[in-house]
Amino acid sequence: MISIAINGVCGRMGSSIAALVAEDKNLKLVAALEREEHPYIGKDLGSIIGQNQNGIIISNELKNSPDVLIDFSSPDSTLARLKTCTENRIAVVIGTTGLDDKQMEQVNKASGGIACLVSPNMSIGVNLLFSLVEIISKVLGEKSDIEIVEAHHRFKKDAPSGTALKIAEKICNVTGQKMDDVIIYGRKGITGERPQGQICIHSIRSGDIVGEHTVIFGNIGERLELVHKAQTRDSFAMGAIRAAKFLAGKSPGLYKMEDVLRELY
User: Domain Dihydrodipicolinate reductase C-terminal: where (predicted)?
Assistant: First the structure.
C-alpha cells in the first residue's frame, strides 16, 4: 500500500484528490496539509470533503514520512514542502501552476535527491494533446498561424494557464523557436498583418469552467483544431493519483506525465 500526503488539501484539486484516494484500496492517506492560517486547520478532513470523519486532521506540519506527497497549492507553499520532502526522502508530485524559472531551478535541484514529477496538467487527455501538438507541429508548425485559447473558472489566479504555456513550449521545441521571441498574449489596436511564426495565447476567465484548451493551426483555405475540454476535476485528480502510484519507489530524478503514460499504455 502506498501512503499519500496532500498539500493544498482544501483547494478544489486537493479535495478531489483526497476523495479519490479514500476510495482506492491501494492507497492510504496519512497527511492532509494546508497553510498555517487556513480556517480548516485542526478539523477532520472527512467532514470537509463530504465523508465521515476519518481521523485525518488538517495540519500545517508534515509529521510523518509518506511515500509520496501530492501538491496542488501555491508556488511558495510548494517550495516549502519540497524542502521538507527533500530532507525526508519523500517523492513529490507537483501540479502547482505559476512556478517561475527560478522556482523550477529549485525543483530541478531537489530532483537530484528525490523523485519529482512536475506537470501543469495531470489529465491523461491533456497529455495526449501535448503529444498530438508535437506531431502536428512537425508538419504544420512553421507554416501555420498558431493560436492557443484557454478557458478556466473565475477563481483561477494565474494566466495564461500552465497547460497553455506547455503547449506553446512543445510547439517552440519542435519548430526551433524561442518562446520569448514569438509568443504574444492577446491583441489590441492596430496590430498590422500577422507575422510568420507568431504564437498568440488567449485567456478566458468565466463562471465555473473547469478547463478548456484549443490549439488552432490556421492556413489559407483550411485550419486544424485540437480541443480538450474537462467536464470535472476528477480527470486531473485521477491523473495525479496515477502519477503518485508511478512515482512511489522510483529513483531520484525529474519525471513527466509522459513517463506515466508510457508505463500505463
Answer: 125-261
CA 166 from centroid of its chain's CA atoms: 10
How much is the pTM?
0.80
What is the rounded distance in angstroms from the CA atom of residue 131 to the CA atom of residue 26? 29
Report the amino acid identity of residue 46. Answer: G
Distances 59 to 20, 71, 90, 97, 142 between C-alpha atoms, Å = 20, 14, 18, 22, 50
Mean pLDDT across the chain: 94
Residues annotated as catalytic are 152, 156
Phi then psi for 258, rounded to 5 degrees? -60, -35
Grid look-up 494557464 returns 161
Domains of the chain: 2-118+233-264 (3.40.50.720), 124-230 (3.30.360.10)
Pick the closest to residue 129 from 199, 204, 227 (CA basis). 227
Distance from C-alpha of 72 to C-alpha of 91, rounded to nearest angstrom: 14
Quickly state the pLDDT bin for 199 (edges 50, 70, 90).
very high
pLDDT at position 64: 82
Angstrom distance (rounded) from CA 10 to CA 251: 30
